[in-house]
Amino acid sequence: MNAKYNFVTAVIAGLVVLTQASARQTADPSTVVMSPMKGVSFEIGDERAVSYFLSENGECKLVLTHAGEPNVNEPGFTATRFEATIGAGKATRYVSRDGDAIDFECQSNARSVSISGVEAAYAAR
Questions:
Q1: Who contacts 96 (Cβ-Cβ below 8 Å, separation ≥6)?
Q2: CB–CB of 50/66 below 8 Å?
């Protein structure tokens, strides 16, 4: 269990490091735009989230992973992974178990994804 926890923690930490300058802010402060293979981290309620996407065959293949803080009294924690294939010019919505909604829109050229409804504190400005 400890190895699994360490692996998930390392993956999330690595993606957070990669995201520090990879997203750009739009005119709307709650919208962030991602480029392919350049992740972004943000808050979903009281959990941390990391998302990235691949552009393949005119579609955006999205991956979102989020988890809360580990409980120091119990080993491990639960991470949630969401994957979606979004057609160019289309959108999908992810709703967390706490009811927080995040919208992902694959742009018409499938070379960027707009994320709406996020706290963009860690996105490059």
A1: 44, 45, 47, 66, 80, 102
A2: yes
Q: Of the CATH numbers 1.10.3470, 3.90.550, 3.30.700, 2.60.98, which one belongs to the domain with range 2-116?
A: 2.60.98
Nearest 10 degrees: Cα torsion 97, 123, 15, 111? 90
Digitized pLDDT (tens) for each residue of the chain, 125 residues in all? 455 554 444 444 444 444 443 444 444 556 889 999 999 998 888 888 999 999 999 999 999 999 988 777 877 778 999 999 999 999 999 998 888 889 999 999 999 999 998 754 444 33
* Contact by Cβ (8 Å): 42, 55: no
pTM of the model: 0.70
- Tally of CB atoms within 10 A around 77: 14
Query: What b-and-e string marks burial along 5-42, b requiring 16 or more CB atoms within 10 Å of the CB?
Result: eeebeeebeebeebbeebbbeeeeeebbbbbeebbbbb
